[in-house]
């Protein structure tokens, strides 16, 4: 019996406030002869359905629907989460945005150091188990060890009873595939990759937390706040690819923001800011041409401005969200960088999207402050930049707009990235071209330091049209 021909499924598909649909659930849940009563009511309304068919419906289709008590008491579920301790709401929110989390990811984010210990009776595990008992989270034990996971360590997915609160918070529909009620809903094909990407975001946050760097003559305190961590589910960006002349879908492995706060405030400077970035993780299993094509997709994404529709606060002229691709195999940084530059030159693309390449080993060793990152628009391809300084320079138009402070939560429009957008090309901006193979790099002026908002005229090398990144010039604070 397919759900498309099931009278009860059609009744359920009505709005949440449909009294008839709720009444069917009440009969089934609280009456011993509920199936017969439902069959009689359907017959009286002209929809013949036997009591046996009713039983088959609840046997075959009930997993796709919230339980009757939960459906009736939707507002009570929302209220119960709102009354919970703030860090428990934050955990549910993070699980929704990341798809799943681990106890190791949660502990340093929401618990003081003395309570981060992970054991059977620790506060972290006790809180997660409590959320799972109320169906706000779903605990799942992988059938075999995943990357970096010891045997017996669970993953925590979104539970069914969190969905009313998530829908109210984000004004978005939570479909059945977005929450977990049974193990066979969890596909394992990409789970290892997604786990590695989630752990990488958490690790980048750990490397930044509480650290200080020197950037353009100022001491800056770093953080990667979890309020802006997103996994792949929310990052599907559909847009018109101007390079191919067709619709295209980009699915980043993650999204986050690195924030900077001035240690010593300066007149005319913002006291803090946030620099969002996409995250891609390359395990080394794909061919180089496939990875290059993936990165070219980000150039087309920048041209489309779809990111500004998904996150309205980022809809700023001359700004594109940087992309950080982390490679498990260090040698692929140079190989893919060279190949991508060759393709860009052959296609006449002189203003590439802000794409940053770094190996995982160098990121672990150097963090955000050491020169470990390569920028695809740098006229000197072998130069390495401190990762934070590079992201900050590429985010200069956003910082000057003063839209985001260090821990500002980005507003997400779940449907925005799929809306049609003006297809007029962006205004051209004069910028140095990428040199051909063997050619000497052109000299361009250094980006100006951060200053008062709007003070950008006459500061060459600091601005870029939407869809194009500035070609970062000058010397980094540290370089190699």
Structure commentary:
With 480 residues, the protein is of the alpha+beta class. The protein folds into three domains: 3-71, no CATH class; 75-185, Arc Repressor Mutant, subunit A, CATH 1.10.10; 193-418, no CATH class. The chain has helices at 7-12, 19-30, 34-44, 51-61, 68-72, 74-82, 86-98, 103-110, 123-133, 163-170, 191-208, 288-304, 306-310, 331-346, 360-366, 387-394, 396-401, and strands at 100-101, 137-140, 155-158, 212-215, 218-223, 237-241, 246-250, 254-262, 272-282, 323-327, 355-359, 371-375, 385-386. A hairpin with a 2-residue loop joins strand 4 (212-215) and strand 5. Mean pLDDT is 77; it is low at 14-18 and 418-471.
Entry keywords:
480 residues; alpha+beta; Arc Repressor Mutant, subunit A; 3 domains; eight-stranded mixed β-sheet; three-stranded antiparallel β-sheet; 13 strands; 36% helix
């Amino acid at each position: 019996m397919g759900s498309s021909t099931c009278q009860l499924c059609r009744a359920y598909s009505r709005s949440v406030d449909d009294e008839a649909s709720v009444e069917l659930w009440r009969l089934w849940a609280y009456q011993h002869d509920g199936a017969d009563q439902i069959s009689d009511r359907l017959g009286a309304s002209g929809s013949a359905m036997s009591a046996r068919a009713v039983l088959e419906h609840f046997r075959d289709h009930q997993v796709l629907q919230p339980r009757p008590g939960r459906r009736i008491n939707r507002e009570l579920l929302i209220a119960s989460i709102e009354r919970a301790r703030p860090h428990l709401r934050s955990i549910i929110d993070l699980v929704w945005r990341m798809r799943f989390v681990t106890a190791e990811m949660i502990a340093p984010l929401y618990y003081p150091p003395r309570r981060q210990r992970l054991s059977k009776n620790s506060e972290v595990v006790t809180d997660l188990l409590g959320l799972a008992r109320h169906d706000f989270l779903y605990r799942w034990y992988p059938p075999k060890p995943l990357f970096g996971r010891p045997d017996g360590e669970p993953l925590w997915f979104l539970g069914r009873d969190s969905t009313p609160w998530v829908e109210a918070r984000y004004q978005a529909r939570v479909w059945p595939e977005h929450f977990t009620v049974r193990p066979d809903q969890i596909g394992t094909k990409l789970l290892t990759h997604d786990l590695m990407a989630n752990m990488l975001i958490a690790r980048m946050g750990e490397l930044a937390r509480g650290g200080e760097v020197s950037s353009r003559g100022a001491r800056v305190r770093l953080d990667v706040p979890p309020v802006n961590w997103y996994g792949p589910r929310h990052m599907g960006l559909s847009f018109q690819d101007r390079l191919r002349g067709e619709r295209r879908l980009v699915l980043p492995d993650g999204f986050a923001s690195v924030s900077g706060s001035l240690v010593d405030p300066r007149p005319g400077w913002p006291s803090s800011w946030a620099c969002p970035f996409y995250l891609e993780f390359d395990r080394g299993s794909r061919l180089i041409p496939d990875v290059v094509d993936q990165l070219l997709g980000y150039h087309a994404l920048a041209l489309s401005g779809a990111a500004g529709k998904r996150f309205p606060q980022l809809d700023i002229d001359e700004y594109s969200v940087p992309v950080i691709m982390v490679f498990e195999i260090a040698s692929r940084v140079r190989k893919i960088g060279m190949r991508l530059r060759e393709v860009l030159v052959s296609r006449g693309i002189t203003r590439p999207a802000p794409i940053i390449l770094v190996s995982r080993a160098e990121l672990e060793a150097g963090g955000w402050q050491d020169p470990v990152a390569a920028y695809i628009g740098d006229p000197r391809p072998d130069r390495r930049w401190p990762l934070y300084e590079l992201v900050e320079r590429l985010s200069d138009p956003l910082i000057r707009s003063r839209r985001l402070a260090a821990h500002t939560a980005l507003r997400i429009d779940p449907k925005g990235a799929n809306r049609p957008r003006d297809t007029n090309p962006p205004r051209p901006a004069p910028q140095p071209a990428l040199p051909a193979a063997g050619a000497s790099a052109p000299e361009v002026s250094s980006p100006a330091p951060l200053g008062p908002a709007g003070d950008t005229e006459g500061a060459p090398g600091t601005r870029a049209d939407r869809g194009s990144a500035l070609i970062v010039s000058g010397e980094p604070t540290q370089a190699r």
